[in-house]
Amino acid sequence: MNVGFDGGFYATKAVSGERVAHFPSFATRPAESLFSLNGHTTVIMESAHGRFLVGAEAVKKGVTGARKETHDWIMSAEYLGGYFYAALSDLTEATQVTVNLVAGLPVADYARDRVALRDRLLGTHTFTRVGRRGQVVKVESVRVIPQAWGAVLCLLLDDNGKAVQPELVKEKVAVLDIGGHTVNYLSVDGLSDIPAETRGTERGAWHVVRVVRDFFGATHPGLNRLQDHQVMQAVVEGITYDGGEAVDLRPVVKTIVNDIGQEIIDVASQYWGMGGATFRRVVVCGGGAYLWGEHVKRAFRQAVVIPEPELANARGFYRFAAYLATKV
Q1: What percentage of the chain carries pLDDT values higher than 90?
Q2: Torsion of CA 29, 33, 37, 41, to 10 degrees
Q3: Residue 52: which of 24, 72, 14, 20 has the closest Cα?
Q4: Check: CATH 3.30.420.40 for 166-307?
Q5: Sequence-separated (6 or more) residues with CB below 8 Å from residue 118
Protein backbone atom coordinates (compact mmCIF):
# COMPACT_ATOMS: atom_id res chain seq x y z
CA MET A 1 0.00 0.00 0.00
CA ASN A 2 1.44 3.38 -1.03
CA VAL A 3 0.71 6.37 1.21
CA GLY A 4 1.48 10.07 1.03
CA PHE A 5 1.44 11.73 4.45
CA ASP A 6 1.42 15.48 5.10
CA GLY A 7 1.24 16.18 8.83
CA GLY A 8 0.70 19.93 8.94
CA PHE A 9 0.39 22.30 11.88
CA TYR A 10 -3.19 23.16 10.92
CA ALA A 11 -4.40 19.97 9.27
CA THR A 12 -3.29 16.40 8.71
CA LYS A 13 -3.63 15.08 5.17
CA ALA A 14 -2.93 11.62 3.80
CA VAL A 15 -3.70 9.99 0.46
CA SER A 16 -3.72 6.42 -0.80
CA GLY A 17 -5.40 5.91 -4.15
CA GLU A 18 -8.89 7.37 -4.01
CA ARG A 19 -8.95 7.41 -0.21
CA VAL A 20 -8.17 10.66 1.53
CA ALA A 21 -7.68 11.50 5.21
CA HIS A 22 -8.11 15.17 6.07
CA PHE A 23 -8.76 16.49 9.56
CA PRO A 24 -7.60 19.25 11.94
CA SER A 25 -4.24 18.57 13.59
CA PHE A 26 -5.70 18.66 17.06
CA ALA A 27 -5.71 15.94 19.70
CA THR A 28 -6.87 15.87 23.29
CA ARG A 29 -7.65 13.33 25.96
CA PRO A 30 -11.13 12.02 25.18
CA ALA A 31 -14.12 12.82 27.36
CA GLU A 32 -17.12 10.78 26.23
CA SER A 33 -20.39 12.62 25.56
CA LEU A 34 -23.33 11.57 27.73
CA PHE A 35 -25.47 11.48 24.60
CA SER A 36 -24.59 12.15 20.97
CA LEU A 37 -26.14 11.66 17.54
CA ASN A 38 -22.75 12.12 15.87
CA GLY A 39 -20.85 9.11 17.18
CA HIS A 40 -19.73 8.15 13.71
CA THR A 41 -17.66 11.33 13.49
CA THR A 42 -15.71 10.64 16.67
CA VAL A 43 -12.15 9.37 16.15
CA ILE A 44 -10.46 7.99 19.25
CA MET A 45 -7.08 6.35 18.78
CA GLU A 46 -5.51 3.99 21.32
CA SER A 47 -1.92 2.79 21.27
CA ALA A 48 1.18 2.57 23.42
CA HIS A 49 1.53 6.32 22.84
CA GLY A 50 -1.74 7.11 24.60
CA ARG A 51 -5.46 7.55 24.02
CA PHE A 52 -6.43 10.55 21.91
CA LEU A 53 -9.57 12.12 20.57
CA VAL A 54 -8.48 13.44 17.17
CA GLY A 55 -9.75 15.90 14.59
CA ALA A 56 -12.97 17.91 14.39
CA GLU A 57 -14.54 16.40 17.51
CA ALA A 58 -11.35 17.12 19.46
CA VAL A 59 -11.59 20.77 18.41
CA LYS A 60 -15.17 20.94 19.70
CA LYS A 61 -14.53 19.18 22.99
CA GLY A 62 -10.94 19.98 23.83
CA VAL A 63 -10.46 22.54 26.58
CA THR A 64 -6.71 22.22 26.56
CA GLY A 65 -5.16 21.07 23.34
CA ALA A 66 -1.96 19.59 22.10
CA ARG A 67 -1.34 21.70 18.99
CA LYS A 68 2.34 22.55 18.81
CA GLU A 69 4.10 25.05 16.57
CA THR A 70 7.72 24.06 17.16
CA HIS A 71 9.60 21.76 14.83
CA ASP A 72 9.98 19.04 17.48
CA TRP A 73 6.22 18.41 17.53
CA ILE A 74 6.97 15.50 15.17
CA MET A 75 8.41 13.73 18.22
CA SER A 76 5.24 14.21 20.30
CA ALA A 77 2.89 11.40 21.27
CA GLU A 78 0.02 13.30 19.62
CA TYR A 79 1.80 13.42 16.25
CA LEU A 80 2.35 9.68 16.08
CA GLY A 81 -0.39 8.18 18.24
CA GLY A 82 -2.96 10.76 17.22
CA TYR A 83 -2.54 12.25 13.75
CA PHE A 84 -0.47 9.58 11.99
CA TYR A 85 -2.46 6.64 13.31
CA ALA A 86 -5.80 8.36 12.69
CA ALA A 87 -4.74 9.07 9.11
CA LEU A 88 -3.76 5.45 8.54
CA SER A 89 -7.07 4.29 10.01
CA ASP A 90 -8.90 6.58 7.56
CA LEU A 91 -7.02 5.08 4.62
CA THR A 92 -7.53 1.40 5.48
CA GLU A 93 -9.52 -0.83 7.82
CA ALA A 94 -7.21 -3.80 7.20
CA THR A 95 -6.01 -5.43 10.40
CA GLN A 96 -2.57 -6.03 8.91
CA VAL A 97 -1.04 -4.05 6.08
CA THR A 98 2.38 -3.10 4.72
CA VAL A 99 2.94 0.53 3.71
CA ASN A 100 5.45 2.35 1.54
CA LEU A 101 5.37 5.92 2.78
CA VAL A 102 6.40 9.32 1.46
CA ALA A 103 6.15 12.22 3.92
CA GLY A 104 7.19 15.86 3.89
CA LEU A 105 8.72 18.49 6.11
CA PRO A 106 8.78 22.29 5.79
CA VAL A 107 11.78 23.52 3.83
CA ALA A 108 13.21 25.23 6.93
CA ASP A 109 13.05 21.99 8.94
CA TYR A 110 14.03 19.49 6.29
CA ALA A 111 17.81 19.26 6.72
CA ARG A 112 17.58 19.11 10.51
CA ASP A 113 14.61 16.77 10.98
CA ARG A 114 14.30 14.43 8.00
CA VAL A 115 16.23 11.57 9.61
CA ALA A 116 14.31 11.88 12.88
CA LEU A 117 10.96 11.83 11.07
CA ARG A 118 11.98 8.88 8.91
CA ASP A 119 13.06 6.88 11.94
CA ARG A 120 9.85 7.82 13.79
CA LEU A 121 7.58 6.57 11.01
CA LEU A 122 9.55 3.51 9.93
CA GLY A 123 8.70 0.15 11.46
CA THR A 124 5.67 -1.62 12.88
CA HIS A 125 2.80 0.37 14.40
CA THR A 126 0.03 -1.20 16.48
CA PHE A 127 -3.08 0.82 17.26
CA THR A 128 -6.85 0.66 17.60
CA ARG A 129 -9.47 3.08 16.40
CA VAL A 130 -12.21 2.77 19.00
CA GLY A 131 -15.14 0.87 17.55
CA ARG A 132 -12.97 -1.19 15.21
CA ARG A 133 -10.60 -4.11 15.40
CA GLY A 134 -6.97 -3.38 16.16
CA GLN A 135 -4.57 -2.69 13.30
CA VAL A 136 -0.93 -3.56 12.72
CA VAL A 137 0.73 -1.40 10.05
CA LYS A 138 4.25 -2.19 8.96
CA VAL A 139 5.82 0.88 7.38
CA GLU A 140 8.37 -0.86 5.21
CA SER A 141 9.96 2.18 3.62
CA VAL A 142 9.92 5.91 4.29
CA ARG A 143 11.08 8.70 2.01
CA VAL A 144 11.01 12.21 3.52
CA ILE A 145 11.15 15.10 1.06
CA PRO A 146 10.76 18.90 1.28
CA GLN A 147 7.07 19.68 1.58
CA ALA A 148 6.58 21.96 -1.42
CA TRP A 149 7.92 19.26 -3.76
CA GLY A 150 4.58 17.50 -3.31
CA ALA A 151 2.88 20.04 -5.58
CA VAL A 152 5.46 19.46 -8.35
CA LEU A 153 5.05 15.70 -8.06
CA CYS A 154 1.26 16.06 -8.04
CA LEU A 155 1.47 17.78 -11.43
CA LEU A 156 4.19 15.56 -12.86
CA LEU A 157 2.79 12.11 -11.99
CA ASP A 158 -0.50 10.25 -12.03
CA ASP A 159 -1.74 7.82 -9.38
CA ASN A 160 0.26 5.02 -10.99
CA GLY A 161 3.50 6.96 -10.73
CA LYS A 162 3.68 7.65 -14.46
CA ALA A 163 4.69 11.05 -15.83
CA VAL A 164 1.72 12.88 -17.30
CA GLN A 165 3.35 16.31 -17.67
CA PRO A 166 6.84 15.41 -18.95
CA GLU A 167 7.38 19.03 -19.97
CA LEU A 168 8.06 19.75 -16.28
CA VAL A 169 11.38 17.94 -16.75
CA LYS A 170 12.57 20.90 -18.84
CA GLU A 171 10.67 23.77 -17.24
CA LYS A 172 11.64 26.16 -14.50
CA VAL A 173 8.76 26.36 -12.04
CA ALA A 174 8.19 27.83 -8.60
CA VAL A 175 6.00 26.69 -5.76
CA LEU A 176 4.47 28.81 -3.02
CA ASP A 177 3.27 26.38 -0.37
CA ILE A 178 1.31 28.44 2.16
CA GLY A 179 0.48 26.51 5.31
CA GLY A 180 -0.75 27.17 8.82
CA HIS A 181 2.62 27.99 10.34
CA THR A 182 5.06 28.10 7.44
CA VAL A 183 5.43 29.34 3.88
CA ASN A 184 7.71 27.32 1.61
CA TYR A 185 9.29 29.05 -1.39
CA LEU A 186 10.58 26.43 -3.85
CA SER A 187 12.36 27.01 -7.13
CA VAL A 188 12.77 24.01 -9.43
CA ASP A 189 14.61 23.85 -12.76
CA GLY A 190 14.70 20.56 -14.64
CA LEU A 191 13.29 18.73 -11.59
CA SER A 192 16.14 19.89 -9.37
CA ASP A 193 15.62 22.56 -6.75
CA ILE A 194 17.75 25.68 -6.74
CA PRO A 195 19.07 26.18 -3.18
CA ALA A 196 19.63 29.95 -3.51
CA GLU A 197 15.97 30.40 -4.50
CA THR A 198 14.43 27.93 -2.03
CA ARG A 199 13.58 29.05 1.49
CA GLY A 200 11.05 28.62 4.26
CA THR A 201 9.57 31.19 6.63
CA GLU A 202 7.41 30.94 9.71
CA ARG A 203 4.53 33.23 8.90
CA GLY A 204 1.39 31.48 7.75
CA ALA A 205 -2.31 31.38 8.48
CA TRP A 206 -1.91 31.06 12.27
CA HIS A 207 -0.68 34.65 12.35
CA VAL A 208 -4.14 35.71 11.21
CA VAL A 209 -5.51 33.76 14.19
CA ARG A 210 -3.23 35.65 16.56
CA VAL A 211 -4.41 39.01 15.26
CA VAL A 212 -8.05 37.95 15.61
CA ARG A 213 -7.30 36.83 19.17
CA ASP A 214 -5.95 40.31 19.92
CA PHE A 215 -9.20 41.71 18.53
CA PHE A 216 -11.20 39.37 20.75
CA GLY A 217 -9.17 40.36 23.80
CA ALA A 218 -9.97 44.03 23.21
CA THR A 219 -13.63 43.73 22.23
CA HIS A 220 -15.02 40.24 22.91
CA PRO A 221 -12.92 38.62 25.70
CA GLY A 222 -15.32 35.68 26.07
CA LEU A 223 -14.41 34.50 22.57
CA ASN A 224 -10.83 33.84 23.64
CA ARG A 225 -12.11 30.50 24.94
CA LEU A 226 -12.37 29.33 21.34
CA GLN A 227 -9.76 26.84 20.18
CA ASP A 228 -7.32 28.07 17.51
CA HIS A 229 -8.97 25.81 14.94
CA GLN A 230 -12.36 27.32 15.81
CA VAL A 231 -10.93 30.81 15.39
CA MET A 232 -9.52 29.79 12.01
CA GLN A 233 -12.92 28.49 10.94
CA ALA A 234 -14.42 31.84 11.96
CA VAL A 235 -11.71 33.59 9.93
CA VAL A 236 -12.63 31.56 6.85
CA GLU A 237 -16.35 32.23 7.34
CA GLY A 238 -15.80 35.88 8.27
CA ILE A 239 -18.17 35.72 11.22
CA THR A 240 -18.59 34.32 14.73
CA TYR A 241 -21.02 34.88 17.58
CA ASP A 242 -20.74 36.38 21.06
CA GLY A 243 -23.76 35.93 23.28
CA GLY A 244 -25.87 35.14 20.23
CA GLU A 245 -24.88 38.34 18.44
CA ALA A 246 -22.97 38.23 15.17
CA VAL A 247 -19.38 39.49 15.21
CA ASP A 248 -18.18 40.56 11.76
CA LEU A 249 -14.53 39.57 11.41
CA ARG A 250 -14.11 40.68 7.82
CA PRO A 251 -12.60 44.13 8.49
CA VAL A 252 -9.88 42.89 10.87
CA VAL A 253 -9.22 39.78 8.76
CA LYS A 254 -8.94 41.77 5.52
CA THR A 255 -6.26 44.02 6.98
CA ILE A 256 -4.00 41.25 8.26
CA VAL A 257 -4.57 39.05 5.19
CA ASN A 258 -3.51 41.94 2.96
CA ASP A 259 -0.44 42.61 5.13
CA ILE A 260 0.69 38.98 5.10
CA GLY A 261 -0.15 38.67 1.40
CA GLN A 262 2.15 41.58 0.62
CA GLU A 263 4.84 40.07 2.83
CA ILE A 264 4.60 36.74 0.96
CA ILE A 265 5.03 38.55 -2.36
CA ASP A 266 7.94 40.64 -1.04
CA VAL A 267 9.74 37.55 0.28
CA ALA A 268 9.14 35.67 -2.97
CA SER A 269 10.52 38.60 -4.94
CA GLN A 270 13.54 38.74 -2.64
CA TYR A 271 14.35 35.03 -3.01
CA TRP A 272 13.57 34.72 -6.70
CA GLY A 273 14.76 38.18 -7.74
CA MET A 274 14.61 39.02 -11.43
CA GLY A 275 14.55 35.27 -12.07
CA GLY A 276 10.91 35.24 -11.07
CA ALA A 277 10.00 36.35 -14.57
CA THR A 278 11.63 33.21 -16.01
CA PHE A 279 9.34 30.76 -14.23
CA ARG A 280 6.98 29.02 -16.63
CA ARG A 281 4.58 28.53 -13.73
CA VAL A 282 4.23 29.68 -10.14
CA VAL A 283 2.20 26.97 -8.43
CA VAL A 284 0.28 27.93 -5.30
CA CYS A 285 -0.69 25.18 -2.85
CA GLY A 286 -1.44 24.62 0.83
CA GLY A 287 -4.51 25.64 2.77
CA GLY A 288 -3.32 29.25 2.74
CA ALA A 289 -3.97 29.32 -1.01
CA TYR A 290 -7.60 30.08 -0.18
CA LEU A 291 -6.54 33.25 1.65
CA TRP A 292 -3.62 34.40 -0.52
CA GLY A 293 -3.98 32.73 -3.92
CA GLU A 294 -5.36 35.92 -5.47
CA HIS A 295 -2.49 37.98 -4.04
CA VAL A 296 0.01 35.68 -5.73
CA LYS A 297 -1.86 35.70 -9.04
CA ARG A 298 -1.86 39.50 -9.07
CA ALA A 299 1.90 39.55 -8.49
CA PHE A 300 2.82 36.72 -10.89
CA ARG A 301 0.66 36.49 -13.99
CA GLN A 302 1.85 32.91 -14.60
CA ALA A 303 0.62 31.82 -11.16
CA VAL A 304 -1.95 29.03 -10.83
CA VAL A 305 -3.66 27.68 -7.73
CA ILE A 306 -3.51 23.90 -7.87
CA PRO A 307 -6.92 22.18 -7.49
CA GLU A 308 -7.66 21.20 -3.88
CA PRO A 309 -4.50 23.06 -2.82
CA GLU A 310 -4.62 21.76 0.77
CA LEU A 311 -4.22 18.18 -0.53
CA ALA A 312 -1.62 18.86 -3.22
CA ASN A 313 1.42 17.84 -1.18
CA ALA A 314 -0.13 14.65 0.21
CA ARG A 315 -1.36 13.68 -3.26
CA GLY A 316 2.06 14.35 -4.75
CA PHE A 317 3.73 12.30 -2.01
CA TYR A 318 1.38 9.40 -2.76
CA ARG A 319 2.14 9.58 -6.48
CA PHE A 320 5.87 9.65 -5.75
CA ALA A 321 5.45 6.56 -3.54
CA ALA A 322 3.72 4.85 -6.49
CA TYR A 323 6.61 5.90 -8.75
CA LEU A 324 9.20 4.54 -6.32
CA ALA A 325 7.29 1.24 -6.19
CA THR A 326 7.79 0.82 -9.94
CA LYS A 327 11.56 1.06 -9.45
CA VAL A 328 11.84 -1.78 -6.94
Answers
A1: 61
A2: 0
A3: 24
A4: yes
A5: 103, 142, 143, 144
> Are 213 and 224 contacting, i.e. CB atoms less than 8 angstroms apart?
yes
Q: What pTM was computed for the model?
A: 0.89
Report the 10 Å Cβ neighbour count for 84.
Answer: 28
Residues 50-97 pLDDT 10s: 999 999 888 877 654 444 556 688 999 999 999 999 999 999 999 999
Q: At what angle do helices 206-219 and 228-237 cross, to 10 degrees?
A: 90
CB atoms within 10 A of CB 277: 10
**Closest among 160, 163, 171 to 194, alpha carbons compared:** 171
Q: How far apart are CA 309 and CA 241, in angstroms?
A: 29
Q: Where in the chain is the domain with CATH 3.30.420.40?
A: 2-146, 166-307
First to last CA, the chain: 14
Helical H segments across 157-249, by residue range: 206-219, 228-237
125-160 residue pLDDT tens: 999 999 999 999 999 999 999 999 999 999 999 999
The pLDDT of residue 66 is 42
Identify the three-state secondary structure at position 2: strand
Which of 74, 82, 91 is CA-nearest to residue 52? 82
Give the burial class of 65: count Cβ atoms within 10 A of its Cβ; 0-12 exposed, 13-18 middle, 19 or more buried: middle
For the chain, 328 residues long, the average pLDDT of each consecutive 10-residue run is 94 96 90 56 92 88 54 89 98 98 94 96 98 97 96 96 91 91 90 89 77 89 82 85 92 89 90 82 93 92 94 98 90
SS3 277: helix
The superfamily in CATH containing domain 2-146 is ATPase, nucleotide binding domain (3.30.420.40)
Of 149, 146, 147, 126, give the one whose Cα is nearest residue 137.
Answer: 126
Share above pLDDT 70 across residues of the chain, in percent, rounded to a whole number? 92
